[in-house]
Amino acid sequence: MKRDATQKVCLITGGSNRLGREIAISLAGRGYSIFFTYFSSEDQAKDTLEEIQGMSPSSSMAYCNVSDVSSILESFKAFKSKYDRLDLVIPNASNFYQTPLPKVTESDWDSLVNTNLKGTFFTMQEATKIMLKQQFISRIITITDVSAELVWRRFAPYTVSKLGIQHITKIFAKEFAPHILVNSIAPGTILHNPDRDQTYEKEILAKIPLNRFGSPNDIIRAIMFLIDSEYITGEIINIDGGRLLY
Ligand SMILES: NC(=O)c1ccc[n+]([C@@H]2O[C@H](COP(=O)([O-])OP(=O)(O)OC[C@H]3O[C@@H](n4cnc5c(N)ncnc54)[C@H](OP(=O)(O)O)[C@@H]3O)[C@@H](O)[C@H]2O)c1
Hints:
Elements (H helix, E strand, L loop, with lengths): L8 E5 L4 H12 L3 E6 L3 H14 L4 E4 L5 H14 L5 E4 L14 H26 L6 E6 L12 H21 L3 E8 L10 H8 L10 H13 L7 E4 L7
Parallel strand pairs: 1-2, 1-4, 2-3, 4-5, 5-6, 6-7
Helix pairs in contact: 1-2, 1-7, 3-4, 4-5
This protein binds NADP nicotinamide-adenine-dinucleotide phosphate.
């Protein structure tokens, strides 16, 4: 599908389902051409692409395992074969599961840290190579987690990976200013996982001053704010209903 050269382009990793899908659909509605990656959810990715193409026909998708740099490079090759500009990158792909501290294995560590931190880093590195050649300001919005600022004993590799992403967000912001604005959104609890622990959920809800879990729209509003902002870089925006006040 031929694209209007002035149409903005967004690349988002992990866009097949859940939050990534909601973000991709909203940005398509906002006029962006979307290139998203999927990993294990090919069928859901196809459904998401169909929905996105209904609003933004030049959108497309590709497989990517973000824990493998060669796979990231392949997906950027696919991206570059289709698009001649890159306005916005959202490294959203993530791995999340409980890892009680005494039981963390090397494989847990590699799986969580490589998907989240290494995957985000090399996605950002590839994106900046395209963005720096452009004559306009582009943006990267990393997706982290308020737990990066909390001390959760059951999630150490995950929270370490998200804290690492917050740090590289600041490093990239400094390195690539003023050409690329780099910020992070740190959600609180937005969507629950299939292996949800309802007792644990009640404990979390009791620590949210705004008395509800967040919704994808709470995150999308912040993304829309950042893509319209021209004087914010290196910031972490916590969207957590006040969770960090506890
Ligand atoms: N949900 C929340 O309440 C919440 C709270 C705080 C922070 N966040 C952050 O917000 C973002 C979206 O949340 P979510 O709950 O929608 O995330 P998610 O479902 O846990 O994961 C998002 C996507 O990451 C992809 N993925 C996993 N491993 C991958 C790999 N090795 N290579 C490439 N892609 C991989 C999956 O794609 P496939 O399905 O195609 O395999 C999945 O759809 C994440 O960064 C998450 O950490 C979410």
